[in-house]
Amino acid sequence: KTDQVSHHIALIRDREPYHIHKNHDLTVSVLNGTGSIVIEGTRYPCEPGTVIFIPRGTAHAYINGDKRFVSAAFVVFSPPFDGKDRIVVEEQSTRD
Predict the structure, then answer these.
(1) Which residues contact 67 (CB under 8 A, 6 or more apart)?
(2) Residue 80: is the preceding peptide bond cis (ω within 30°)?
(3) What pLDDT is stored for residue 96 in this prediction?
């Protein structure tokens, strides 16, 4: 963690709730596992090496594609994540 960013490992066994971060931008780098990320109602495939930038206020959720294994991602929040800025929102219908 610095004054500008914080670094996290996110582990997803199934899926995370559809949500926004009102005060944080984040960059997600998929480390292992396959699945998809839904961003503003559009589904994007993810695999190791996928990098995604999610601006603050953008609704999103990661969905693990193989629930036999945990998916892992390296996530950078800017400004540093305070553990409180996750607002669950109603999921939009997914456009593939």
Answers:
(1) 13, 14
(2) no
(3) 57
